[in-house]
Design a protein that fits this description.
With about 425 residues, this protein is α+β, with helices and mostly antiparallel strands. The protein is built from 18 helices and 4 strands. The protein has one domain. Belongs to the TMEM20 family.
């Protein structure tokens, strides 16, 4: 029927996804084959070996017993040929004589889980770094908040540029997402400038508390622009937040003209309050834009737009205002460098925390920022908080914690 010099070995690769791949291997036996050789090239020869590929990339090789017996009977020449067949599957990937139960167990073996509290630890580190930045901004004298923002954006550009080249994301991003990237950069940089200005104009803890109210406004803006669900709890948390801001601002028409615990005059205090409140809303808009973009845009590309647009905006604004100054004290120059480095580290740890942990626990961990602000204000600036400031901070922290817990609970039920 056919020439026995070329006998076909059939090797079937079976994958758990019901995909079977068949390879045909041709063995040359020499020209002096006879009828017995033809019998050897029959059904037993075609069932020489079978290789099963599991989904977890472990290769299980099963060689037919008949083929091994024939390899021993053939002599040295056929033994070499049998050894060649066995080396077709690398030994490092072969698991022989394993029962089916053990193979299935290894296929279903899960990866070991990491440390459960690592994400919260990263969130705590980012909170500490951001709190230290606020202290440093408050410490530097004679440098405008916009100039501090420009220096931070400049070093952030230097840090992000190699990462964009490494990840091959480009510097412009997807064409349909560029308008959102520009908005993210413009609004986010303005939020940073307003926060720095508020810290310079009013007590550190008060500015931090007002700025920390942005999660409540994020829920409202997401309801308006993204059509996300808004519940009665969101309205309650908003009322609590506005109450807290009023307790911190203490407008004269509600609290009278004689106010205690205000840094400088009341004009600077109200300027700082307005800047912090506007910064909180700007930060909320930034989060809404990031939600709109989703995960289709790489994080480093978003930070790149934030740094570039912020740097250009700060340079133009400082030049127009004529506020560009080089710090006279060498210590302030090092502090400006430290602000930039800590800003990069804080953003990196916060991003890593959100990648590992859910957003709810991370937002709850960020409430530590308020506690650290009061502690640092007392230690470094010898200013004890007033009861009004503590009451306002309690209202804001309760509101933001309520938003975080509610979203955490909703996401847990969905999952």
């Amino acid at each position: 029927m056919g020439d026995c010099n070329h006998c076909t070995h059939e090797r079937a690769l079976s994958v758990e996804d019901d995909i079977t791949v068949v390879f045909h291997k041709v063995d040359s036996h020499g020209k002096n084959s006879d009828g017995d050789d033809h019998d050897e090239c029959g059904d037993d020869e075609r069932t020489a070996e079978r290789v099963h590929l599991q989904r977890n990339c472990h290769v299980l090789c099963h060689y037919g017993e008949d083929a091994e017996e024939r390899g021993e009977a053939r002599g040295s020449e056929d033994s070499q040929e049998g050894s060649e067949k066995k080396t077709l599957c690398p030994p490092a990937f072969c698991v022989r004589n394993k029962p089916a139960s053990s193979r299935d167990g290894s296929a279903r073996e899960e990866k070991p889980k990491g440390c459960s509290g690592l994400g919260l630890f990263y969130a705590f580190l980012s909170t500490v770094f951001f709190s230290i930045i606020a202290v440093l901004v408050k410490t530097i004298q004679g440098v405008h908040a916009i100039e501090i923002s420009a220096i931070r954006c400049f070093f952030q550009m230097l840090f992000v540029m190699p990462l964009l080249i490494y990840h091959k994301t480009g510097f412009l991003g997807p064409r349909d997402k560029r308008i959102f990237l520009v908005l993210r950069g413009f609004i986010g940089s303005n939020a940073m400038i307003l926060l720095f200005y508020a810290v310079q104009q009013m007590p550190l803890a008060d500015a931090t508390v007002i700025m920390f109210s942005n999660p409540v406004f994020t829920s409202l803006l997401a309801w308006i622009f993204l059509k996300e669900r808004c519940t009665i709890w969101d309205c309650v948390f908003t009322v609590f937040t506005i109450t807290g801001v009023i307790l911190i601002a203490r407008p004269p028409f509600l609290f009278g003209g004689h106010l205690r615990g205000i840094e400088g005059n009341y004009t600077n205090h109200i300027k700082g309050t307005i800047a912090a409140f506007a910064g909180a809303i700007a930060a909320a808009f930034t989060f809404v834009v990031l939600r709109k973009m989703g995960k289709s845009v790489h994080y480093y590309l978003s930070v790149w737009y934030y740094a570039v647009i912020g740097f250009i905006e700060c340079i133009i604004t400082v030049s127009v205002l004529g506020e560009w100054k080089i710090p006279f004290c060498g210590r302030d120059r090092w502090l400006l460098m430290l602000i930039a480095v800590l800003g990069i580290a804080g953003q990196s740890f916060l991003t890593k925390a959100l990648q590992i942990e859910k957003a709810g626990p991370v937002a709850l961990m960020r409430t530590v920022d308020v506690v650290l602000a009061f502690i640092f204000q007392f230690i470094f600036f010898n200013r004890a908080p007033t009861l009004w400031s503590l009451g306002g901070a309690l209202c804001v922290v309760m509101s933001t914690s309520g938003v975080a817990v509610r979203k955490w609970y909703s996401s847990s039920r969905k999952s």
